[in-house]
Design goal:
12 strands, 232 residues, twelve-stranded antiparallel β-barrel, Lipocalin, mainly beta, 59% strand
Length: 232
């Protein structure tokens, strides 16, 4: 499992390959492990990987805080290391079906433990639209370094997920990611789903896929993986 869930990093971060839902389900708790790994022999990408372990609990029907207990990164040509912690918040702004789409907002604070690396804040809107068996999600996230040595620039990343629910356990689809600051753009197939764990209140969710580089500044392939246990 650990090998599958390794992720890569160059200019990208571990959060860059996830499309968040705006939905919050009151009293639900989650344990999540996700990651990515580049499949690219070029020196700027070869051997890079990263992973994150987090826990969360929705205290209300509109607020879900999440704590990243471990954030691991391995840069190309370097050794892997733990890079810090993160406190993330998802806010559900509208009820499902209330408007033409469902809206939420993400806000997080990243504390870096690597020397001479500034902390950072992230924030931005989350959008989801379901039509029959099709679900579409859009995220627009800005990042800003804070503290000593912080850059004055705001970095934008955006992402899209489109899936078709063949069943609860099998939802094939496509994901696309853009990081204009790195001039990196990627898209590719994914498959996700969930199973109810018998005799419990929990569900086991999975997501696997690969996104391909659309331009030369992006890695040729990025393998994605996510496993999550949700319970009440």
């Amino acid at each position: 499992m650990g090998a599958i869930l390794l992720l890569t990093t160059g200019a990208a971060r571990a959060d860059d390959f996830i499309v968040y839902s705006p939905h919050v389900l009151a009293s639900q708790s989650e344990i999540e492990l996700r990651g990515y790994r580049y499949g690219d022999s070029r020196g700027d990408f070869s051997g890079g990987s990263a992973a994150e372990l987090s826990v969360s609990h929705a205290f209300t029907g509109w607020w879900k805080p999440e704590i990243y207990l471990a954030r691991y990164e391995k840069e190309p040509g370097d050794n892997g290391r733990l890079v810090g912690y993160e406190f993330e918040n998802t806010f559900q702004l509208t009820q499902p079906g209330q408007l033409w789409a469902d809206f939420g907002f993400l806000a997080s604070y990243e504390h870096q433990t690597v020397a001479n690396t500034p902390d950072a804040v992230e924030f931005g809107p989350l959008v989801e639209k379901t039509l029959g068996r099709f679900t579409n999600r859009f995220n627009f996230i800005w990042e800003k370094e804070v503290g000593a040595g912080a850059s004055s620039k705001y970095m934008l990343r955006y992402s899209y997920s489109g899936t078709y629910a063949v069943s609860a356990a099998f939802r094939p689809g496509i994901e696309a990611y853009g990081r204009p600051g790195d001039h990196a753009y990627q898209a590719g197939p994914v498959v996700s789903g969930e199973w109810h764990v018998p005799n419990t209140t929990g569900n086991l969710e999975y997501r696997f896929g690969v996104v391909l580089g659309i331009n030369a500044a992006a890695p040729r392939r990025t393998w994605l993986a996510q496993v999550e246990y949700e319970f009440f």
